[in-house]
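DM from R.C. (forwarded with permission)

"hey, sorry to bug you on a friday — could you get me a structure for this? deadline for the figure draft is monday and I only need the backbone to look sensible"
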Amino acid sequence: MKATIWHNPDCGTSRKTLAILQEAPGINLTVIEYKKVPFDRAKLVQLFRDAGLTPREALRTRGSRAEELGLINGGENQRILDEMARDAILVERPFVETEKGVRLCRPQEIVHEIL
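My reply, with the result:
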């Protein structure tokens, strides 16, 4: 099974999710460090749709500029997407995609739903 994780090595939850994927048998894993290879807007739209999330639900509010940008209490979904495409740190992490679906793996055990 193919799996892709949008990973931030500075994040404990992301590291734990990555470890689960690395230990799972039969996984052909792609790791994308999204701070080095940013999301494009179309990929964000697809990930959120497939995970059943709105951009607001996938917005990282801690450790990001979300409040400074006015995204927490009033940012529209289209604007949130635009800002996420400009600054990947605004995307909550980690996202994992397999042929069984997409999940925002917070907590990391959620990844088992799509393995």
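R.C.: lifesaver. The chain is about 30% helix and 15% strand.
me: no worries. The CA atoms of residues 103 and 113 lie 8 Å apart.
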